[in-house]
Design a protein that fits this description.
The complex is a heterodimer of chains A (106) and B (119).
Chain A (H helix, E strand, L loop, with lengths): L8 E4 L5 E6 L8 E6 L6 E4 L13 E6 L2 E6 L8 E9 L2 E4 L3 E5 L1
Parallel strand pairs in A: 1-9
Antiparallel strand pairs in A: 2-6, 3-4, 3-7, 5-6, 7-8, 7-9
Chain B lengths: L2 E5 L3 E2 L5 E8 L8 E6 L6 E7 L2 E4 L7 E6 L4 E6 L8 E8 L8 E4 L3 E5 L2
Parallel strand pairs in B: 2-11
Antiparallel strand pairs in B: 1-3, 3-8, 4-5, 4-9, 5-6, 7-8, 9-10, 9-11
Classes of the chains: A mainly beta (106), B mainly beta (119).
């Protein structure tokens, strides 16, 4: 079965740039979505089709996808961005989620 | 704005069938990918399956135990998971794709409902 691998945790200082990676075999050939989940809340879509932002998502969120790695980048990270982040791709007709990355802003 | 709301028992006995319903408001249940996703306490997200225009697709690891169906007259879709064990204890989310041209990205989520499997 297809697998997506994320680092368990990433730390960033306020105002700096955070990068969260997601790795999978030939991932660049698939569309990747990213979700933000804060404690006790439902996930929120922050990036879809590798690079697109849904309406209402701040411009500081961006994405890229090439080769075997997709990256979620948060520029000018704010305290409110502290959350768990999940990547997701479709392997044929099956949705696959990465294990999640806890972003700490300190 | 599309809204989704899960409903169903919060406690299910081992070996029984978990049944949940998702009620959709603010939009038609016709078309779009309607999914169920779960999250065990303190763990990550796991996709269970979707229904799209009466066609279904399930996570291979759960396929033998899962049924997703839709009731268009009530604007609802449902999940049944049979032969549950403690490992099926999780928050269960119903969800919908963001738009028909968004590559099936999951853009709308219910608030989630905790289902505990215990005798």
């Amino acid at each position: 079965s297809y697998e997506l691998t994320q680092p368990p945790s990433v730390s960033v200082s306020p105002g700096q740039t955070a990068s969260i990676t997601c790795s999978g075999d030939k991932l660049g050939n698939k569309y990747v979505s990213w979700y933000q989940q804060k404690p006790g809340q439902s996930p929120v879509l922050v990036i879809y089709q590798d690079t697109k932002r849904p309406s209402g998502i701040p411009e500081r969120f961006s994405g890229s996808n090439s080769g075997n790695t997709a990256t979620l980048t948060i520029s000018g990270t704010q305290a409110m961005d502290e959350a768990d982040y999940y990547c997701q791709a479709w392997d044929s007709s099956t949705a696959v989620f990465g294990g999640g990355t806890k972003l700490t802003v300190l | 704005q599309v809204q989704l709301q899960e409903s169903g028992p919060g406690l299910v006995k081992p070996s029984e069938t978990l049944s949940l319903t998702c009620t959709v408001s603010g939009g038609s249940i016709n078309s779009y990918y309607w999914s169920w996703i779960r999250q065990p306490p303190g763990k990550g997200l796991e996709w269970i399956g979707y229904i799209y225009n009466s066609d279904t697709n399930y996570n291979p690891s759960l396929k033998s135990r899962v049924t997703i169906s839709v009731d268009t007259s009530k604007n609802q879709f449902s999940l049944k998971l049979s032969s549950v064990t403690a490992a099926d204890t999780a928050v269960y989310y119903c969800a919908r794709d963001y738009s028909s041209v968004a590559g099936r990205a999951i853009g709308y989520w219910g608030q989630g409902t905790l289902v505990t499997v215990s005798s």
